[in-house]
Design goal:
Blueprint: H1 3-10, E1 14-15, E2 23-24, E3 31-36, H2 37-43, H3 48-52, E4 58-64, E5 67-72, E6 83-87, E7 90-91, E8 112-119, H4 123-126, E9 133-139, E10 149-155, E11 159-169, E12 174-185, E13 204-218, E14 221-237, E15 243-261, E16 264-280, E17 287-305, E18 309-323, E19 325-326, E20 330-346, E21 351-368, E22 384-399, E23 402-413, H5 418-422, E24 423-427, E25 430-433, E26 441-454, E27 459-482, E28 487-510, E29 514-529, E30 549-559, E31 562-571, E32 574-579, E33 584-589, E34 592-602, E35 607-614, E36 620-621, E37 629-630, E38 632-640
Parallel strand pairs: 6-9, 19-24
Antiparallel strand pairs: 1-2, 3-8, 4-5, 6-7, 8-9, 10-11, 10-38, 11-12, 12-13, 13-14, 14-15, 15-16, 16-17, 17-18, 18-20, 20-21, 21-22, 22-23, 23-26, 24-25, 26-27, 27-28, 28-29, 29-30, 30-31, 31-34, 32-33, 34-35, 35-38, 36-37
Length: about 650
């Protein structure tokens, strides 16, 4: 899709990811915010979590210099696994646990055209395991976008980074985009809480390269081929709230064939992701290593029936496998066959209805060795489950300035490979395993949204209210399985949770050179856990760790060669989780406000220098139950051609 041409046509950022047809964000049958390339540049951020911390309704927990967890509408925790992250339609989260090691993503900020943040369950519209929200990263298309840029950055905490993007035409065949980056930095020096003590801090590092090509095979037929590699090392907080040193290596290859035909827009996509993780947490347990591969094949057709009906039909096959760790010799895997359909009906010029349904059939397998006196056999994994997700939304264009949306959705998070058996510790003093008997987590969301334009003020308002219910929440340490000679700790379903929330978002322009935004979210979560898991006792707590009040604001000015932006984040007091070694408990985290900023000057038409900072109000500030976060300041030189 030529996003640039469509943006000129619509006069604003557009998306085609929800229904397959170009739409404004306010016309999507889900609550979506689009962060543009201009927003990314002016954010002053050096990574994707740094950008997302400014977005209304997004929660970011920064544990370390390069380690953050991101969720949508609360429900954040270490190794957060409720958010689907895509790059150009390819799932990029670490499948073996379902979380996102952001430093290991093979994308440079200067290669991103826009980031789409979709709130609430959206599995039926966006894909597998999209239960809390979707972060959809759209990069520049080398066929339509000639992007050539290099950025050099240096700053506090020993930061040194270089990244670049170049686009090369391939004659009449198509075009190729190459991007890559190198980064090194030191870890924060603030003390690690004794409860989280792990290995000594190490230096962080990141290397990434990506090649993305598009070839025009015939009129209205194109083929895309992409390959990427990353290597990242970082200090991080593990799912059991222990400090650990992690090393990630990822590789991916993706092919996509698209044809605009008389029977619709046909798309065939196939990709494989490989991720290897090596981590050291508790020295007594030694080094963990995980090798995970997921292969996905998708086929879809987007077509019209008359002028008022757009439909999308899709099928998908997914194979996901990981070896056991730290005890080797076993393999846990699953196959998923999925079918989905979407129907967008323009009932009248002012009213449209979108319904989407997805069915996932998952089949588990396990092979290889098992410990003596293990509570399961390989045959226990010979199980299957069928789960249904849906999205339904009504859009009513009340008038030139007002839109109303009513939405209902259900998403399903299937158990990950670690929870299902790829984690296997068999020591004389500790036995830990996954289990094939976990129930999938289901999230149901009901939402109302009102969008209102104020043309005379060049401003826009959005008010939304939502209710969300989560069933069959999984805890990594929620159960024990006895055998004749030992007791295995294992994950378990521990209960449900409800959230009620209200979001108010406003933003606009004034006096030609100024822009502003302000958002407020109130959210009230009630966990309904089994007694042994209440009050933060079992590695999961949403009621006390989700802030009740979240405020974000931005003021920016641009004139001539200058740009200035400031971003304020305010979070009401919450609790965080720390560990005793066998369970967790709550610790208080006070109310805090943080300030980010950027000052930039365009030296020439092709060179810009900027100074940016994060957490500027204090030299060190407590934002999580982990180490205090330090102030960061860095300078960037960007060269464009």
């Amino acid at each position: 899709m030529d996003y640039g041409s469509l943006e000129q046509l619509f006069g604003e950022a557009v998306t085609a990811s929800a229904t397959g047809s170009p739409q404004r964000a306010t016309e999507v049958p889900a609550n979506m915010i689009i962060v543009t390339a201009d927003d990314i540049r002016r954010s002053g951020a050096r990574d994707i979590p740094g950008i997302l911390r400014h977005v209304a309704g997004v929660d970011v927990m920064q544990w370390a210099n390069d380690n953050s967890d991101v969720s949508v509408r609360g429900y954040n925790q270490a190794y957060a696994a409720r958010t689907l992250v895509l790059i150009d339609g390819r799932q990029v989260y670490a499948d073996y646990y379902g979380f996102i090691p952001w430093s290991a993503l093979p994308v440079e900020l200067s290669a991103i055209r826009q980031i789409e943040i979709v709130k609430g369950p959206n599995s039926a519209l966006f894909g597998f395991n999209a239960v809390g929200g979707v972060i959809n990263i759209i990069t520049y298309n080398p066929r339509y976008d000639d992007v050539n840029t290099v950025s050099v950055r240096s700053g506090t905490q020993g930061l040194a980074e270089i990244s670049g993007v170049t686009t090369m035409p391939l004659g009449n065949l198509g075009a190729l985009r190459l991007s890559g980056g190198l980064r090194s930095d030191d870890e924060f020096a603030t003390s690690i809480p004794l409860a989280m003590a792990g290995p000594p801090r190490t230096a962080n590092g990141r290397m990434s390269i990506d090649a993305d090509s598009v070839f025009e095979l015939a009129d209205n037929v194109e083929f895309g081929l992409e390959g990427s590699h990353t290597h990242a090392r970082q200090n991080e907080v593990s799912p059991d709230y222990v400090w650990q040193d992690s090393d990630y290596e990822t590789n991916s290859v993706k092919g996509q064939l698209t044809a605009d035909t008389s029977i619709g827009l046909l798309k065939l996509t196939a990709y494989s992701n490989w991720i290897s993780w090596r981590g050291t947490g508790n020295p007594a347990l030694g080094v963990f290593s995980q090798h995970n591969q997921v292969t996905v094949v998708q086929a879809e057709d987007v077509f019209n029936l008359g002028a008022d009906h757009t439909l999308r039909a899709a099928v998908e096959y997914r194979h996901n496998t990981a070896d056991t760790t730290p005890m080797k010799g076993g393999t846990v895997s699953y196959d998923v066959i999925s079918g989905s359909g979407m129907w967008n009906w323009h009932i009248t010029p002012a009213v449209s209805l979108t319904n989407a349904l997805r069915v996932d059939n998952l089949i588990w397998q396990r092979s290889g060795v098992i410990p003596a006196d293990y509570p399961f056999t390989n045959q226990d994994w010979e199980r299957s489950t069928t789960q249904i997700s849906f999205n339904s939304g009504v859009l009513w264009v009340v008038g030139p300035a007002d839109k109303l949306r009513l939405m209902a959705s259900r998403g399903v998070e299937l158990p990950n490979l670690v929870e299902s058996g790829s984690l296997l510790i068999d020591l004389p003093y500790l036995q830990v395993t996954g289990t094939p008997f976990l129930k999938p987590t289901a999230v149901t969301n009901y939402e109302f949204a009102w969008d209102h334009d104020l043309p005379t003020l060049d401003a826009h308002l959005q008010l939304s209210a939502f209710h969300q219910h989560t069933d069959n929440i999984v805890s990594v340490g929620g159960g024990f399985i006895p055998t004749l000679t030992s007791l295995y700790a294992a994950p378990a379903n521990i209960g449900s949770s409800d959230a009620n929330g209200l979001e108010l978002i406003a933003g606009g322009l004034f006096d030609r050179d100024w822009r502003w935004s302000l958002s407020y979210r109130a959210e009230f979560v009630k966990d309904n856990f089994l007694p042994f898991a209440e009050g933060g006792m079992d590695y999961v707590d949403y009621e006390h760790t989700t802030p009740k009040h979240l405020i974000k604001g931005n003021i920016g000015w641009a004139s001539g060669n200058w740009e200035v932006d400031a971003y304020l984040n305010y979070q009401s007091r919450v609790s965080g989780l720390q560990t005793t070694g066998i369970n967790t408990y709550l610790v208080p985290i006070g109310t805090y406000a943080s300030l980010d900023g950027r000052l930039a000057y365009r030296l020439t038409d092709w060179a810009t220098v900027s100074v940016s900072g994060q957490n500027l109000l204090q030299s060190a500030q407590r934002q999580t139950s982990g180490p205090y976060i330090e102030r960061q300041i860095f300078a960037t030189l960007t060269l464009n051609r």
